[in-house]
């Protein structure tokens, strides 16, 4: 039995998916000149907002596996946007990831542009 009491255009989930797709596309345009992916942006923004964190915390915040975040951090480190540092003197296996000055500058530069994309996509999906 099909429930057709709500049209697809009226379904909240459908509107949210469309808004998310629009935001992702627009954010991709903003990030492309900087050779960043949306997930790389998410990691940089997370580090900006939280400060240095363990890679496992960054993985959870980005929705990535630990292996995937290691590769992402390696790529961001090669571009000098992040650094790894030993978190303690007793156990050098425990590291944190932190933004560099260049990474923080990039986040400050891009944050208003990404926020505008989010706002624009949300307002388009509201009607």
From TrEMBL:
Residues 1-127 form the HTH marR-type domain. It comes from the Bacteria. Coiled coil: none annotated. SMART domains: HTH_MARR (SM00347). Gene3D superfamilies: Winged helix-like DNA-binding domain superfamily/Winged helix DNA-binding domain. Pfam families: MarR_2. PROSITE patterns: HTH_MARR_2. PANTHER family: HTH-TYPE TRANSCRIPTIONAL REPRESSOR YETL (PTHR33164:SF43), TRANSCRIPTIONAL REGULATOR, MARR FAMILY (PTHR33164). This is MarR family transcriptional regulator.
């Amino acid at each position: 039995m099909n429930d057709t009491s709500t049209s697809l255009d009226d379904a909240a989930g459908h509107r949210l998916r469309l808004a998310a797709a629009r935001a992702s596309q627009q954010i991709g345009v903003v990030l492309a000149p900087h050779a960043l992916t949306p997930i790389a942006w998410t990691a940089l923004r997370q580090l900006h907002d939280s400060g240095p964190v363990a890679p496992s915390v960054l993985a959870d915040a980005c929705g990535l596996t630990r292996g995937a975040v290691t590769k992402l951090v390696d790529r961001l480190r090669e571009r000098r946007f992040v650094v790894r540092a030993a978190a303690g003197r007793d156990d050098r296996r425990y590291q944190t990831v932190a933004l560099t000055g260049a990474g923080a500058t990039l986040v400050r530069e891009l944050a208003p542009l990404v926020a505008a994309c989010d706002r624009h996509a949300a307002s388009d999906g509201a009607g």
